Amino acid sequence: MVFLVVSVILLNVIAYLMPKRLAPHEMWTTGLFTLVLDYLVDTYLDRKYDLYGYFTHQIDWLSLIPIFGLYPAVSLMFLNFYPYTQNVWCKSLYIAGWSVFSLLFEYASVQSGYFYHNGWKLWYSALCYPVLLGILVGHLIFIRKLETRRKASQ
Predict the structure, then answer these.
(1) pLDDT mean for each 10 residues of the chain (154 residues)
(2) What Rg do the C-alpha atoms of the chain give, in angstroms?
(3) Residue 100: which residues within 8 A CB-CB, separation 6 or more?
(4) Domain spans of the chain?
(5) Less crowded by CB within 10 Å, the N or C end of the chain?
């Protein structure tokens, strides 16, 4: 639990203090999208198939700490520094780096005891993280296109 609390505090302080490259509405929609995406993925992989979860095999209030405390902050940090104007190689390395960070963080979370695997393997996560991070980038690009269209129609 100490690892979780320290992680939530540290990652949120970093997200709060980092120089912002995202507009406030982009940060808001990203945070909400991250929570919805997590809910959808967890509904099936955790609740339906019981492959992993937080703390216990039951739905509990404690699981809200990592869901609300980690995912929005990490998503904002990832998207804030994403190399939008760089080549595909640079973008791929960036996503790979964040995927490695996510794998290490997941491993530490399992070791600390607040997250458990129940049939889930870390290498499944290695396949999922690049896809999920790509979805986050795609979502932000979509939001920016919507905003561009809105401004053009005014």
Answers:
(1) 94 96 95 94 88 84 90 96 96 98 97 93 96 97 94 86
(2) 16
(3) none
(4) 2-10+24-152
(5) C
Instruction: List the Cα angle 74/19/148 in 5-degree steps.
Output: 85
Distance CA(138)–CA(25), nearest Å, equals: 16
What is the C-alpha separation between 49 and 42, in angstroms, rounded? 9
48: DSSP letter:
I
- Terminal-to-terminal C-alpha distance of the chain: 50
Structural tokens at position 73: 């902050």
Angle formed at CA 23 by CA 17 and CA 26, multiple of 5 degrees = 105
State the Cα–Cα distance between residues 114 and 4, nearest whole angstrom. 7
Show the tokens assigned to 101: 């960070």
Residue 83 φ/ψ, nearest 5 degrees: -80, 75
The percent helix, strand, coil of the chain (3-state, each to 5) is 75, 5, 20
Question: Interior CA angle at 102 toward 29 and 144, to 5°?
Answer: 25
Beta-strand runs (E) in 17-92: 52-54
How many Å apart are CA 74 and CA 31, to the nearest integer?
Answer: 9
